[in-house]
């Protein structure tokens, strides 16, 4: 670091204060000055032409991304750090997470987080769609990454039956057969899919938020993603529950509760009633 | 031709006489119809199980008409669109057809499943009644054992039935069952491969479970239920102690007509409750689970409630493997203890309990009178302990659902279950024991000092005392020198209206079925017309 600073100071000295330096130098050791000057020249040239430094100083942000950066610097910088590099122990780096991740995390209100906890919860969004898009654009231009395709309806061409099979193989382990979500370890959980939009499901598969694994396009192709979304949107959310009240679709645990709370209670009261009639 | 006069009124009598001439049925039938049953609401709990078993048989027969117990792979082409074109077993496809394409099939399926849950629930509730009242004591130990066997056979019936549709959820359960069998030391792998016909899942298990579920297990259940009821007939029903009821008689209603009519009505109500639940509450939506594939599993995969305690014990068991260095090395997996050893202990303890208790109390007499739970604090507390143990295990079986829906850490739930399993049963024992003693003490207090009247009397020296109404006329009012009445093992009246000092309690369930009785009026006092809002309660004068 010290030598680097020397170089930098040397460059400035060379550009602006050369006469002063030379006069002082002549009073001291000339050879040392010449050596120093050569080093300054090399360091200065490196500083001027190194590509990374230039990109950092002058990011070619588009208009939306600049707006996004302004939002980022107000709402996200505390945990994700300057230039989204992340802060140790607070928030991860966002370089390379892509617009898909922002769209999911900010679009579902998970980010900004209310507090540090096991997992960010879905809550009313803090940013409008427009602002979310700007933030996404900023993160996208900053580090690249996966992007959700255009359009609000991503399941038009989806095959429900194929989607159901993919869902049961890939998703039901955590989100459960009915899509109601389930518990993971240490307070983490897979959320319910009920409030999720097409784009949010797609973004989640692409970016793997929280504890979810990434289902990249080489694992589940975009067509298969459309199938899965079609199954979730058209079957899980619109299943008419032909059997009646679905008891929350929690499986046998609520069915067991129901048989005691409804069946046994009703029949015990009946037996009280019958025995009372003697 | 002359028409003979047809006497309509004589037909039943003539028919009966004709039948009796041929079968000599009148004498035994009279004995049967005159058989007396004691009447108490808690004696009707076992009937819930009996009646739901009948519903199970009826709906089950309907389902066998349409179910195809085969694991042949077919491609579904029925009316449930999200699964159309999916390869699946014939069993699953026919279960989907029952749900969507057979008229009335879905409600039959749901009634069958609800009836199964109710059957098991009623068995447990009935068992608790028998346990807490001491109805299992000599001479009825055999019936207690048969009852516990009925629970375990019902458990098998439920599990095989749950597996038959071959859906994603039941296949997961079957996989766990195969793992449990595999965990048995030495014989595990042989047991598993002989039941599944090779490796899990094989191609035969659904057909085998089908024949077990529709023939072997129901046959066993019918046999056990018949012996159970036959023994109740032979040994006669127990009764509560009370006026005129002794260890040597049975006081109650004759089987015919009142008891039979009540039971018939109760059957209709049970049927109705099951039908309502089958029609209103969705149970086991197999179409959401998809066909079973070895790679398909879901969050919140639970068995039905009566198996859930085994799931819970598995979830709570620490991962302790016991390596045995014999030959190439052998391991007893941790699964063995909560799923094979624990149920084994439970079966042994529950069936042997009557003998253990008799041995402990050195009580080898026959008992036909029931005991109030408070009068046997140790037994009641042991029962509460068992209930606490079972409830902790059952809740732990659903701990992921509870953790998720109540936003508790799953790890915290597991540890709460582990600690709760050890701490709560002894706590339940202590609390129940103290409650029983407290209730006993209150009974004795009322017998000694009388019922609280709510009348506060001020003595000349300024003290206030509450007037108690003694239960026997011989006692004085001075608060001293009360001879204690003997406790009869039955309800001690604790309210004035039970003594006739106030008007009797108004009978009726939801609305009064009789008019409030007239207040007893002392001679010389005219009947009171309009009652003031607040009035003094004078004993024997007015009604509050």
Please compute the radius of gyration of chain B using only Cα atoms.
Answer: 30 Å
Number of strands of chain A: 2
Helix and strand sequence of chain B = HHEHEEHHHHHHEHHHEEHHHHEE
Tally of helical segments of chain B: 16
Determine the CATH superfamily of the largest domain in chain A: Cytochrome c-like domain
Which CATH architecture of the domain at 38-241 and 252-360 in chain B?
Up-down Bundle
Q: Structural class of the helices, strands and pairings of chain A?
A: mainly alpha
Broad CATH class of the largest domain in chain A: Mainly Alpha
How do the strands of the widest beta sheet of chain A line up side by side?
Answer: 1-2
- Tell me, rounded to a whole number, the average pLDDT of chain A: 85
What would the keywords be for this entry?
heterodimer; A: 278 residues; mainly alpha; Cytochrome Bc1 Complex, Chain D, domain 2; elongated; B: 544 residues; Cytochrome Bc1 Complex, Chain C; two-stranded antiparallel ribbon; disordered C terminus
The gist of it:
The complex is a heterodimer of chains A (278) and B (544). Chain A is an all-alpha fold.
Secondary-structure map:
The complex is a heterodimer of chains A (278) and B (544).
Chain A (H helix, E strand, L loop, with lengths): L1 H14 L2 H10 L2 H20 L1 H7 L5 H13 L1 H4 L17 H10 L21 H15 L16 H11 L1 H4 L6 E2 L5 E2 L7 H10 L14 H15 L15 H25 L2
Antiparallel strand pairs in A: 1-2
Helix pairs in contact in A: 1-3, 5-8, 7-8, 7-11, 9-12, 11-12
Chain B lengths: L10 H13 L2 H8 L2 E2 L7 H20 L8 E3 L11 E3 H11 L4 H29 L7 H23 L4 H15 L5 H9 L8 H31 L17 E2 H26 L5 H4 L18 H9 L5 E3 L5 E3 L3 H26 L15 H21 L1 H7 L4 H40 L1 E8 L5 E6 L75
Antiparallel strand pairs in B: 1-4, 2-3, 5-6, 7-8
Describe the structure.
The complex is a heterodimer of chains A (278) and B (544). Chain A is mainly alpha-helical and 278 residues long. Chain A has three domains: 2-57, no CATH class; 63-143, Cytochrome Bc1 Complex, Chain D, domain 2 (Orthogonal Bundle), CATH 1.10.760.10; 160-236, Cytochrome c-like domain (Cytochrome Bc1 Complex, Chain D, domain 2, Orthogonal Bundle). Chain A has 13 helices and two strands; from the N terminus they run H-H-H-H-H-H-H-H-H-H-E-E-H-H-H. Chain A has helices at residues 2-15, 18-27, 30-49, 51-57, 63-75, 77-80, 98-107, 129-143, 160-170, 172-175, 198-207, 222-236, 252-276, and strands at 182-183, 189-190. In chain A, strand 1 and strand 2 (189-190) form a beta hairpin. In chain A, helix 1 (2-15) packs across helix 3, helix 5 crosses helix 8 (129-143) and helix 7 (98-107) runs antiparallel to helix 8 (129-143). Chain A is elongated, with a radius of gyration of 30 Å. Chain B has a domain at 38-241 and 252-360: Cytochrome Bc1 Complex, Chain C (Up-down Bundle). Chain B has helices spanning 11-23, 26-33, 45-64, 90-100, 105-133, 141-163, 168-182, 188-196, 205-235, 255-280, 286-289, 308-316, 336-361, 377-397, 399-405, 410-449, and strands at 36-37, 73-75, 87-89, 253-254, 322-324, 330-332, 451-458, 464-469. In chain B, the strands form four sheets. Chain B has a two-stranded antiparallel ribbon with strand order 1-4. A two-stranded antiparallel sheet of chain B has the order 2-3. In chain B, a hairpin with a 5-residue loop joins strand 7 and strand 8. In chain B, helix 12 packs across helix 14 (377-397) and helix 15 crosses helix 16. Chain B is globular, with a radius of gyration of 30 Å. Mean pLDDT of chain B is 89; it is low at 540-544.
